[in-house]
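Researcher: We plan to redesign the surface later, but first we want a full-length starting point. Tokens attached.
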């Protein structure tokens, strides 16, 4: 298959607003792929190269890279080139990788170059996420979408499952089963604006602490313990506390789902960055373990000693877990509370410094890899009124609009201190309006960034404040998203950097 076919599909998917049409476009593309191209096509249309660590900064290539006049590149040729780049190591490897990438790029047309740049940089935001691709694969291979999703979540690998479905149909999915030692995609949660709404949506529920830690999936097979992150990255060597705790449990074969978090001596959570830095550290964990110990909270059990539990209800899995897990290793929860009891539990969780609560349907199975209605998170929303300092031109569906906003808080001297960027939460209507409004305030440009006079105030929701050396104030907002423009406020009424620092200190 030619790369140009996939690029054309990607552009069409990006331009479409219809989920049904997106699925049809991807399905048609995959139906044309030769067996040897299926895995590459699935990975690329989902926005991820099969090679994870190319070790190249795109800025290291000349912006004037020549482009081909005719589309000749095939998917297999591109995949082989990226594999060669990934395998290049040793002294001078960065320079050789750049040469190899430049050699690939001169064979690409301008549209193919743009696609490859976004693919390699992880910026291919075209709406073709895994759930969308899974539905397209099911349509193309004429298999049950439910059977394909189940196989994908058990295998933890949509590419391999898609290849099996497209090449062998439904019989090809039969080999994908829950296996201790093989990570599966975790169940995800939706959000609710209030506890009452969440309880109404799920019915009888378990209400648990919502922790601001690192999601972990623990597999034990005898003395062999393997720990994966939410993205299925193995991190066993970085969390010896959890390995030791798993080996103390009275079971030989296990799959557990939970979270690790760094707590202070008084039991309150440390800043998320400390937990994240501890889990990310790749050296000897023992010295850091003494300074930043991790605590594990298990909230689900998926397998025990030969018995798969994912099709059991939440209530049944909780009962099994209660017999196996010590109380200090189990996430605090209340079962089937009324609204008053649940509200008191939420208030207590917040008072202890946690994010909020998870509301889980007691009659729900474990829907791995899905953001279904069985789990709903409820956490108070932090908001700030910040000033737009600049914006970046968008790409893909946002081409031609100013999208990524640079956000600033007021300082005591009357200026503004940048706290980060966001393009989340912006509707098409907001994009159109802000592009016109920001261009009218333009004071300068640098690359794709348009600097503006600090006049527009935007209300931003976020999950927390963290230390950041990237910005002048030393702080950044976590998961910032735009709620609305505050046309009723001017910049002098925006929140101050002192208010942001107060939020961090809580």
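Model: Full-length starting sequence:
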């Amino acid at each position: 298959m030619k790369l140009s076919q996939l690029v054309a599909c990607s552009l069409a998917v990006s331009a479409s607003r219809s989920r049904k049409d997106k699925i049809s476009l991807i399905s048609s593309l995959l139906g044309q792929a030769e067996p040897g191209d299926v895995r590459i096509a699935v990975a690329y249309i989902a926005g991820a190269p099969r090679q994870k660590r190319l070790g190249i900064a795109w800025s290291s290539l000349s912006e004037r890279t020549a482009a081909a006049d005719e589309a000749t590149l095939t998917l297999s040729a591109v995949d082989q080139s990226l594999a060669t780049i990934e395998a290049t190591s040793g002294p001078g490897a960065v320079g050789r990788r750049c040469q190899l990438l430049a050699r690939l790029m001169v064979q690409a047309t301008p549209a193919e170059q743009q696609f490859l740049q976004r693919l390699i940089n992880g910026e291919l935001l075209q709406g073709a996420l895994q759930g969308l691709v899974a539905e397209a694969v099911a349509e193309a291979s004429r298999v049950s979408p439910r059977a394909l999703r189940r196989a994908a979540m058990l295998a933890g690998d949509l590419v391999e499952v898609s290849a099996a479905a497209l090449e062998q149909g439904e019989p090809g999915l039969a080999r994908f089963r829950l296996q201790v030692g093989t990570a599966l995609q975790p169940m995800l949660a939706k959000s609710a604006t209030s506890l009452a709404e969440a309880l109404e949506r799920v019915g009888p529920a378990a209400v648990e602490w919502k922790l601001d830690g690192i999601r972990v999936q623990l597999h034990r097979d005898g003395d062999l313990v393997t720990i994966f992150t939410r993205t299925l990255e193995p991190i066993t060597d970085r969390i010896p506390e959890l390995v030791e705790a798993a080996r103390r449990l009275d079971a030989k074969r296990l799959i557990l789902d939970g979270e690790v978090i760094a707590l202070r001596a008084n039991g309150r959570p440390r800043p998320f960055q400390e937990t994240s830095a501890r889990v990310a550290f790749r050296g000897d964990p023992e010295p850091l373990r003494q300074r930043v110990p991790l605590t594990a909270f298990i909230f689900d059990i998926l397998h025990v000693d030969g018995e798969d539990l994912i099709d059991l209800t939440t209530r049944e899995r909780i009962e099994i877990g209660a017999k196996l897990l010590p109380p200090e290793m189990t996430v605090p929860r209340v079962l089937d509370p009324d609204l008053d009891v649940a509200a008191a539990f939420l208030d207590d969780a917040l008072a202890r410094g946690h994010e909020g609560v998870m509301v889980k349907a007691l009659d729900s199975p474990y829907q791995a890899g899905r953001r279904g209605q069985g789990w709903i998170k409820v956490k108070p929303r932090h908001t700030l009124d910040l000033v737009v300092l600049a914006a970046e031109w968008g790409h893909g569906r946002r081409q031609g609009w100013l999208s990524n906003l640079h956000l600033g808080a007021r300082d005591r001297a009357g200026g503004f201190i940048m706290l980060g960027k966001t393009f989340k939460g912006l509707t098409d209507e907001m994009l159109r309006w802000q592009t016109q409004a920001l261009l009218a305030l333009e004071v300068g440009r640098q690359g794709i960034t348009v600097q503006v006079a600090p006049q527009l105030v935007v209300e931003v929701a976020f999950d927390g404040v963290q230390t950041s050396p990237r910005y002048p104030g030393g702080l950044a907002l976590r998961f910032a998203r735009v709620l609305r423009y505050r046309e009723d406020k001017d910049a002098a009424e925006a929140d101050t950097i002192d208010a942001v620092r107060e939020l961090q200190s809580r």
